[in-house]
TrEMBL record:
InterPro entries: Znf_SWIM
Keyword Transport assigned: no
Protein name: Zinc finger SWIM domain protein
Keyword field: Metal-binding, Zinc, Zinc-finger
A Pfam family hit: SWIM
GO terms for MF: zinc ion binding
Boundaries of every SWIM-type domain copy: 157-187
Biological classification of the source: Bacteria, Bacillati, Chloroflexota, Ktedonobacteria, Ktedonobacterales
TM helices/strands, residue ranges: none
PANTHER family: SLR1429 PROTEIN
Amino acid sequence: MPRRRSSYGSRPYRYDDDDEGYSGYGWRATTPIRSEQGIKARSKRGQIGTRWWSQRWLETLEALGIGSRLARGRSYARSGQVLALEVKAGCVTASVQGSSPRPYKVAIYLSPLSDQDWEHILDIMAQDALLAARLLSGEMPQEIEALFVRERISLFPEVSDDLSTSCSCPDPANPCKHIAAVYYLLAERFDSDPFMLFTLRGRSKEAVGEALQQRRSQVEELSQAEDFLLAAQPVPLQPLEERLDTFWQEGEELEDFAPRPAQLPGPSPMLRELGDAPYTVVGENLTNWFERIYMKAAQYARDRLENE
């Protein structure tokens, strides 16, 4: 059975540790068994993970004091040593091929949020029509983390107790290179599906979407009821014979009317349908650049319309 580890290993990392071999006389460098069937990181050099949520995930690990050990797993992640990876509520499980013929079993545990915290967060999300629309369209807005922070609920792990790991290898360091490789591949999984963050915190993408739709329908029904009540109130009208001279003229109320263009969720759903571009610019996928350009162009058009 894999042993549970705290957030800090008991053996300091040595740069000559190539793998986890232990001979009975001490630690010795060994060579991992290569696998052609493993999951390989898309990034072949430079940083792993391009979206804000994957970068935030790696930054969180560094803040917890394990960032210096992450590099141990980068080559494993890129060479396909991770044979399988599954994300479930509160847990990530993986199989990693090391120097032993039998792959090592890795588990990463992230404390799920309580039902009370989830219900509160979903209520807050549903109150913002634009935010809810972006989430329902499959987009993970960057302001979502600020919403969690404002409500004093953590989306990413904040303290070492939020995150625990296990690996069946004999290396007592935490993270060992097998756990570190899973951390990196998990960051790339977040790139493809950021809602895995919600899954790790206890709610699937489908559950969040269903809850938001239900809450938004209730908000819209209430708004329609309020509009109906306002429309039902009698409005005093000036007799027609008293306003014949101004009948064909615009009313004073029209001066206060200012049309505003609708704030759309943005181009992300369209770009996401196309997927990542086959090119990068300054180490970042071209799709990310297009997304920012589209958002700035849309904002510029709105500003021009409002100022004219």
